[in-house]
């Protein structure tokens, strides 16, 4: 069994509520929406990712005989509940923003419409799948904005919080525009380009650094990158210059050198000068080592001759803001709008849609959140994905998702493009949604 497919990747209270719903005959149609309450500090926008994995999970949703046996043995649930779970499949509707879409607080990015017990059970895993990829896609988008035109590679698998997180970070960063990843399985699954150089241990395993470079080049001549900061980066750069013509005579081209520590701005300038003076102007400089978008923006601003960046820990953990406040809330049950009114956690009721306006130059200019089914100016962001448990459109390819994300980033206004000084964006609540919110409040008050 693929652990990630299990419906038991959930919180116990979801199953507890299912039992109570079934015991009370509450199996009518419900709509839940997944959204973010607020932007994390330092963020001016968010980017959706993870929908493909969510839909795949829903399409294969079922309880296996082993899972049903476990639940029965636990003694927590009655026979009626177990019978219900045995035949349970996702036969509901999904509406969602396409992956690679820029979004903002309170905007629904995914809506589930299904029988209440089923829709309730989906909450934990849907948040789990979409929160993590959207978090990393947003982080990667910020790095893209910090280093336009540079080669960016995900180096973060080893620091990710588990195997699934590391793999999905490779996918999410590629959605946002990264050139590729160091995670090999990502290429096998999705065709994401993989990049790899060498570790300091390879150099250390040899008595002579030049010998290490030459032996590695002969063993791995394709897209050859040599790591030059094991000892002295400038001395190593001179060894690269000496080795380059010898290898070139054998058809082996040194594509780049990598610096993983130290003063990256100063070192890159000195290494560039050594390479150029030695007749190697085509050898690129790639850097890595605990980088995040603030550092990268400063390096780019300095004019350092760096062609690419490997981003690891800060990317796969979204180190500065490691969580999104994504929630999944009941908006409608049996045709009646529902609303949460808890302090600082209030929700807007009913099934909703988002309309987005664009300025004359093509940049996004403001969003309106209002009731689904209205006709308002702008482009609607949520679209049908599944109906009665079946996909209603061809799933977009990863290349298409990536192209959408690129277009979304290109459409960001200036106020949202600076990763270090985020600006505001206008999101309005539509009149009909405002009126419905007041009506629900009156209804709640009337019931005491």
TrEMBL record:
Record's GO cellular component terms = cytosol
Sorted alphabetically, which CDD domains does this protein's record hold? NAPRTase_A (cd01570)
Highest taxon of the source?
Answer: Bacteria
- Domain Nicotinate/nicotinamide phosphoribosyltransferase span(s) in chain numbering: 152-333
Output the GO biological process annotations, alphabetical, semicolon-separated.
Answer: NAD+ biosynthetic process via the salvage pathway
EC number(s) given by UniProt: 6.3.4.21
Q: Which family does it belong to?
A: Belongs to the NAPRTase family.
Alphabetized GO MF terms = glycosyltransferase activity; nicotinate phosphoribosyltransferase activity
Q: In which pathway does it act?
A: Cofactor biosynthesis; NAD(+) biosynthesis; nicotinate D-ribonucleotide from nicotinate: step 1/1
Provide the catalytic activity annotation. 5-phospho-alpha-D-ribose 1-diphosphate + nicotinate + ATP + H2O = nicotinate beta-D-ribonucleotide + ADP + phosphate + diphosphate
Read off the Pfam families from this record. NAPRTase, NAPRTase_C, NAPRTase_N
Query: What post-translational changes are documented for it?
Result: Transiently phosphorylated on a His residue during the reaction cycle. Phosphorylation strongly increases the affinity for substrates and increases the rate of nicotinate D-ribonucleotide production. Dephosphorylation regenerates the low-affinity form of the enzyme, leading to product release.
Describe the function of this protein: Catalyzes the first step in the biosynthesis of NAD from nicotinic acid, the ATP-dependent synthesis of beta-nicotinate D-ribonucleotide from nicotinate and 5-phospho-D-ribose 1-phosphate.
Stored InterPro entries: Aldolase_TIM, N/Namide_PRibTrfase, NAPRTase_C, NAPRTase_N, Nic_PRibTrfase-Fam, Nic_PRibTrfase_pncB, Nicotinate_pribotase-like_C
Organism name: Rhodoplanes elegans
Signal peptide positions are none
Domain Nicotinate phosphoribosyltransferase N-terminal stretches = 8-130
Q: Know the name of this protein?
A: Nicotinate phosphoribosyltransferase
Location of the Nicotinate phosphoribosyltransferase C-terminal domain = 380-436
Write the record's keywords in alphabetical order, separated by commas. Answer: Glycosyltransferase, Ligase, Phosphoprotein, Pyridine nucleotide biosynthesis, Transferase
